Amino acid sequence: MEPGNMDFDTNGWMWDGVYYYPHLFGGIMLTAALLGLSTSFFGGISVTNLPYFLPDLGMFHKKKSGKKHVRVYMDGCFDLMHYGHANALRQAKALGDELVVGVVSDEEIIANKGPPVLSMEERLVLVSGLKWVDEVIDNAPYAITEEFMNRLFNEHKIDYIIHGDDPCLLPDGTDAYALAKKAGRYKQIKRTEGVSSTDIVGRILASAKDMKVYEGHEGSSLHGEPHNLNSIQGEESCANGGHISHFLPTSRRIVQFSNGGKGPGPNSRVVYIDGAFDLFHAGHVEILKSARKLGDFLLVGIHSDQIVSEQRGTHHPIMHLHERSLSVLACRYVDEVIIGAPWEVTRDMITTFNISLVVHGTVAESNHFWNGKADPYEVPKSLGMFQMLESPKNITTTLVAQRIMANHEIYEKRNAKKEASERKYYEERKYVSGD
């Protein structure tokens, strides 16, 4: 109901008064008692006479309306989705009551940016899996045309269109959100520092060059050790893939992504799943969704950079521990994460977190039978609380990286252009309030 509209209920005005204004109504009844009037007197007053008897109590005519329900819209390609995308949508949701997200079509991405890494179906799974997203519009246009803007306002009841403080320019150099700004229905949020899809592609390409994984043989992968281990001793691990991460993790950001400190109840069935969750993708979302269905509380262990590097090779992970943790925390199926979880699920872990079931997906990165390490699930298996979980998708971090490497020339060219514009943005950007 719009603020200011009156909804007069001819049969329930008195009970509305009791419900919404108990103190005031009680005062009226007490005054009546002091004057010697029976409280039943009020039951005999006709509703039509009420405005004349209590001219200042027009509030009884109005049922609880509250403030207007605000719906906000934000769109994007959401290719190689990361915690920066998630944080943008979190900020957008904070500007309204419901968040509707438009996912740009493959065709529009190709026309404006080049080929996407992830398919529309995979990008929809990722966006729908975020805890702040209420509705998704697929095949959204790259530019907010007048026709599409009117569709948002009229069909989807959108109040405001949201975008980050970084410019979004069309190929002709015009502002993609000019119409929304002109209509006075545009709001701006703060871009998340230290990450972008361009940056992630750069990390993968740099890693691939060092690992020499796209030199001509089919089925190449990012697994295994580099050709010359001595050449990289002492360098940073490939949590940066040759590109230094500029992400500055803060305690507040972790709190913003968390579920308000809500832990499992004493009788909750806690399900535990662990992994690297590098380059968070649709396969991760689907396996977490399946795991959550097996209990009341899903606890996710995020392996440390060191553990991932030992298992997958020196140039892994692509995203470092805090980046991977935020991506997992943003998933609507996740209740809590262990940041830097140990390799083995110990008896003490099971007791500490009151774990009822430990699961592992059937589709995972090849790890050469855990690379000589002990079976990490030996204890839960011995306790009869381990279960292999059928993975709904066969996508892996390696497969995502291979898509980029297969078209590395295209992505290198695109990245060179994007990196230049991003450098310019960081050089010229000013402080934007909100986070």
List the helices and strands and how they pair.
Blueprint: H1 13-20, H2 22-34, H3 50-53, E1 71-76, H4 83-94, E2 98-104, H5 106-112, H6 120-128, E3 135-140, H7 146-154, E4 160-164, H8 178-182, E5 186-189, H9 197-211, H10 251-257, E6 270-275, H11 282-292, E7 297-303, H12 305-312, H13 321-329, E8 336-341, H14 347-352, E9 355-361, H15 368-371, H16 378-382, E10 386-389, H17 397-406, H18 408-428
Parallel strand pairs: 1-2, 1-4, 2-3, 4-5, 6-7, 6-9, 7-8, 9-10
Describe this structure in words.
By secondary structure, this protein is of the alpha/beta class. The chain has helices at 13-20, 22-34, 50-53, 83-94, 106-112, 120-128, 146-154, 178-182, 197-211, 251-257, 282-292, 305-312, 321-329, 347-352, 368-371, 378-382, 397-406, 408-428; strands at residues 71-76, 98-104, 135-140, 160-164, 186-189, 270-275, 297-303, 336-341, 355-361, 386-389. It is 37% helix and 13% strand. It has a 5-stranded parallel beta sheet with strand order 3-2-1-4-5. Helix 11 links the parallel strand 6 (270-275) and strand 7. Helix 1 (13-20) crosses helix 2. The longest helix has 21 residues, at 408-428. Residues 1-64 and 213-242 have low confidence and may be disordered.
